[in-house]
What we know:
This protein is an alpha/beta fold. It has helices spanning 17-30, 41-48, 55-61, 63-82, 88-100, 111-119, 123-136, 147-157, 159-185, 199-210, 215-221, and strands at 7-12, 34-37, 104-106, 193-198. The protein has a 4-stranded parallel sheet, with helices on both faces.
Amino acid sequence: MSYLRYVKVIGTVHVSPESVREVRETIIREKPDAVALELDYPRLLALLRRERLTFSQALKLGKIGLFGFILQELEMFFGRSLGESPGEEMIEAYKAAATLGIPVYLIDKPVNETLTGMLSSPPIEKLRFGIEILVSLLPGKPKELDYLYLIKEFRERFPHMYKVLVEERNLYMAINLMRIVDSLLEKKKKVKVVAVVGLGHKKGIEKILNAQKPRAFKINSL
């Protein structure tokens, strides 16, 4: 019996109103023992306070700050197109869990580590990425976005960035989810964790969880 038996992974589109509703309804219906979010502590605080990184703040933080600012503005652009602010589904998950008295775990890698890894990409990849961002912000872009297709295309065009942004974080978050499950299984047999992550992480995390058995389960089986 793998870890996936105990974890329900919700794959969201960070700027989608439908994802906000799905997250809220799933948590209320499942009433899990824990809710895990694709966030670190500073990002959760920023979302709850509705804070955004300004350009002047980004300049003071150097390359990492500027890179984070660019990614933030790109998400805001797509959010305006779809009628939802980035991260609303995470806020909704946090509020739903708090209302039901469910513990919340932040399972994502610290954002500065991820940004540092992306900045270590080959120069040609960073140049291509910058051009792609500029093009995406030009007027006349379609509002309907096929995120699964964009993820596949991103993996092909930016292999190093994909590894840092998706694959390394998949493993980081999956390990944290396994730790949560192990901890819960030490107290009770029937355990359910709802994990709210971006759609691009769902399959990768599920694959890792499905390949491993809970430590607590193996101990209890001896």
